[in-house]
Amino acid sequence: MLEVGQAAPKFTLQDQNGSPISLDSFKGKKVLIYFYPRASTPGCTVQACALRDTKAELDALNVVVLGISPDTPKKLTNFINKQELNFTLLADEDHAICEAYNVWQLKKFMGRENMGVVRTSFLIDESGNLEHIFNKFKTKDHHQVVLDVLNELAK
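RE: above sequence
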């Protein structure tokens, strides 16, 4: 289990354009990594669009947003274009990073069990350590929960 205060697991993943993005390249900024099950599904769209709409507030707090899902870069490009998203999405097709962050878990839905992403977000501080873990929120409120914590930390 990951805990606040420990170093965030490092990664390099392809973004929606197929370019490699490393967590290390964001030292000196706060990073909100949010893991979501699948691009263009209703809950994931609500969550992503709310983050899109609060980007100015997140920028003012020196926060970079990275969305991670097991989708392909092509699906991420389509999601970004369709929803006019203004932040980077990363493809974790083999779900190795999801596993490193312990969000790849057995899920039960309508009587069926399968492995998938448990919607969770991690706030990483300027030094690369876990500053806050968000795991209890509704998709439509996620952005506000994040902003509330960020504003509290900024005091």
